[in-house]
Amino acid sequence: MTTVSNVNQIAGVAAPESPFQAAEADLADKNTFLRLLTTQLSNQDPTNPMDNEQFLSQLAQFSSLEQLMGVQSTMQAVYTGIQALNNASMANLLGTRVTAAADSVKLEALPEGETAHPDRELGWVAGENLSDARLEIRDESGKLVRTVELGSVDAEGSYTWDGTGADGKAVPAGTYTFKVTGTNSVGDRVTADTRITGIVDGMDYATGTPQPFVDGVAVSLGDLVTLRTGDAG
């Protein structure tokens, strides 16, 4: 198993916002420029026509505009190509086991005949070891469905939840949030940062920036803190 802490090492970076969108709004269309120039020539005063110097100046502006639009078109094509490559590289994350900064897990409806959900790994990161640590799991309405007294724990660790509630039975399908609290070395009650570990099972490109799903939970690329290649189980 290879552990990679930097997401960019395996899947590139998120697609940046196109740098050409603002320029397109400000850049005049060359056909519009030609129409304006033609109209100006057609309606000029015959007794005071445009002199050669002014006409050459107008043509120079058109030439510069045309060159700029050509460069813009080329750069847009390059940007589109980079974005396509980046999106393709992000597909390599599918099936990868990752750890992400998140506080929720998703449980699907149990298939007929099944009585237990797949395990979910609920993690935490605190600045120091904690005593009297407690894990609380809540449903989408905020109702507390499970409390686990963890006792003394390391600053970084995880708890494997089997998807059961306080009564020991499988909870309904849905999204569940969790938090870990504990007492630090000076006696203060603190809340640790949360982590989830699971398999990247989806990738959404709708917004232009790839968004991975970890066991059905949407996270941002910036929330991925650890990738484990060669270990998808």
Mean pLDDT, all residues: 79
**Morphology call:** elongated
**Helical content (DSSP H or I, runs of 4+):** 25-40%
Which assembly state applies to the chains in this document? single chain
Uncertain runs: 10-16, 19-27
Please report which band the strand proportion falls in: under 5%, 5-15%, 15-25%, 25-35%, 35-45% or over 45%.
25-35%
Number of extended strands: 13
How do the SSEs run, as a string of H and E? EHHHHEEEEEEEEEEEE
Distance between the termini: 11 Å
The CATH class assignment of the largest domain is: Mainly Beta
Structural class: alpha+beta
According to CATH, the fold-level topology of the largest domain is Immunoglobulin-like
Can you tell me about this structure?
The protein is α+β, with helices and mostly antiparallel strands and 233 residues long. The chain folds into two domains: 8-92; 95-229, Immunoglobulin-like (Sandwich). 27% of the residues lie in helices and 34% in strands. It is built from four helices and 13 strands. It has helices at 8-11, 21-26, 30-42, 52-90, and strands at residues 2-4, 97-101, 104-107, 120-125, 130-138, 144-153, 156-161, 174-183, 189-191, 193-204, 211-214, 217-218, 224-229. The strands form two sheets. Strands 1, 2, 4, 7, 10, 11, 12 and 13 form an eight-stranded antiparallel sheet that branches. A hairpin with a 2-residue loop joins strand 11 and strand 12 (217-218). Helix 3 packs antiparallel against helix 4. The chain is elongated, with a radius of gyration of 29 Å. Residues 10-16 and 19-27 have low confidence and may be disordered.
